[in-house]
Amino acid sequence: MDNGYLSKTPIWQYVLVSLIFPMWGMAASLNDILITQFKTVFTLSDTATAFVQSAFYGGYFLIALPAAYIIRKNTYKTAIMTGLTFFIIGCAMFFPASHMATYGMFLAAIFVIAIGLSFLETSCDTYSTMMGPQESANRRINISQTLIPFGDAMGIILGKYLIFSGHSNLEAESAGLSAAQKAAFNKEVLLLTLKPYKYILFVLLVLLVLVAITKMPYAKAKTDLAAAQGGAGVKQPSLGESINYLLHNTRFMKAVGAQFLYVGIQTCVWSFTIRLALRIIPGITDHAATNYMIISYGVWFVGKLCANWLMERFSITKVMIWYCLLGTVVLILTATIHSPIAIWGAVATGFFFGPVYPTIYAHGLDQVTEKQHTETGGAFMVMSLVGGAFVPVIMGRVSDLSGSMQLSFIVPTIGFALILWFFLSEHKKGAAKAA
C-alpha cells in the first residue's frame, strides 16, 4: 500500500520474522542469571551489578538510529541480517571473556550482543507491524511478541541447568575460601557461562541462513520506494528531517517516554526477583530461585494471551488502563509485605507486563501519520529501551542506601503508575476524538 503496509500478510516471512523475537528474550533473561553470578564472582554491589543492564540497553540506545539509517537506505532484510551477525559475534565473545575473567570483557560482549539486538528490534518490531493491513498492525506485533516469553523462559532454563548446575548458592560456596581457592572457583563458574551461548550460536546461524535465502517484502512507504528507485519529483526525507518531525510529534514522544519507563521497570523487576527470593527465603539455592523467573515468564505469556483476547472486544487503551492499575497495586504489595508473598507479587507483575511493550510500540507508530518517517520512529521506540540501563541503577542505588532489596521495588511501582497516567490520557484523547 502507499503507506508501506502490505495488503496481505505473507505467512512464511511473517513467521520467520516472528521466530527472531524469542531470541532477544533469551539474551535478556540470561542477563538476570549473569547478574546473580557476577555479583559473587566479581564481589559487586547491587548498583554495580545493574551495569550489566546498562551495557545491554546502552547498546540499544546507541545503535537504534544507525540501524534505522541502514533500513532507510536498504531494506528490513539487510538490517535483520546485520543484527543477527552482531548477535553471533557478541555470543562468540563469551569464549575469550570466560578465560580473561574480567567484568569489563563480559560487559563488552553483552554490549556487542545489544548492538545486534538493537538492529533486530528496530527492524523486526516495525516490520511485524507493516506486514499486513494497517488496521491489524497492533494484533500482528502482539502475536509476534507473544513468542518472547518462550525465549525468556528458555534463557532462564539454560542458565539454571547449564550455569547454576552443580552449585547450590554461589555466595555461600565462595565464603571462607582462600585467595587461590576463590580464583579457581571463579574460573570454574565463569567457564559455565559458555554453555548456553553455544546453543544460542547454533540457532542464530540457522536463522541467518533462512533469512538470507528467503525473499522478503519491501514494506515501506511509496515515497521511500520511489526515492530509492530514483523516482522523479519524490524526495525521501533526510534523517534530520525525520528526527525533527518526530520530536515535534507530542503524542509520539509521550509514547517514547512511556516505553522508556516500561522497559526500565520490567528490567528492574526481573533483574531483582531472583535476589529478592534469596533474601526473603532462608537457605534457598540459586538453582531453586530461578524457578520464580521461569514462572514469571509463563505468567507473562498468559498475560499477553489474555490481553490479545480482551483487545479484540474492548478499547485497547481501556484494557491497558486496567493492566497498569492492577500491576501498580501488585508492586505496592511486593514492596511492603515482608514474606514470600512479596516474591509472588513480583512474579504476578509479569502478567500485567504482558501487552505493555507491543501496545505502546504500535500505538506510538500510529501517531506517525507521515509514514515516510516510520523507520526512524521505530528507532526512537527502540532507543527508549535505554530505560533498562538507567532505571535499574536507580533501583540498585535505593537498595544499597536503604539496605532493603524489597523497599527498592518502590521504583518500578512509581514507573508503572506513570505508565497508567499515559494510557489514561490517551484514552481521554481517543474518546474525545470519537465524540
Per CATH, what is the topology?
Growth Hormone, Chain: A
Helix count equals 21
Overall 3D geometry? globular
**The CATH C-level class name:** Mainly Alpha
Largest sheet: none
The strand count comes to 0
Please give the CATH architecture.
Answer: Up-down Bundle
What fraction of residues sit in β-strands? under 5%
By CATH's scheme, which homologous superfamily applies?
MFS general substrate transporter like domains
Oligomer: single chain
N to C succession of SSEs: HHHHHHHHHHHHHHHHHHHHH
Alpha-carbon distance between the two ends:
29 Å
Helix content: over 70%
Average pLDDT metric:
84
* CA-atom Rg in angstroms: 22 Å
**Domain module tally:** 1
> Structural class, from secondary structure content?
mainly alpha
Low-confidence stretches: 224-228, 230-234
Provide an overview of this structure:
It is a multi-pass membrane protein. The chain crosses the membrane at residues 12-30, 50-71, 78-95, 101-120, 141-163, 196-213, 260-278, 290-307, 319-337, 343-365, 377-395, 407-424. This is Fucose permease. GO terms for molecular function: fucose:proton symporter activity. Keywords: Cell membrane, Membrane, Transmembrane, Transmembrane helix. The chain has 435 residues and is mostly helical. The protein has one domain (11-230, 237-430): Growth Hormone, Chain: A, CATH 1.20.1250. The protein has 21 helices and no strands. The protein has helices at residues 11-41, 46-49, 51-73, 76-92, 94-100, 103-130, 137-145, 148-163, 170-174, 179-191, 194-213, 222-228, 239-247, 250-280, 286-311, 316-336, 340-353, 356-366, 374-383, 387-402, 410-434. Residues 224-228 and 230-234 have low confidence and may be disordered.
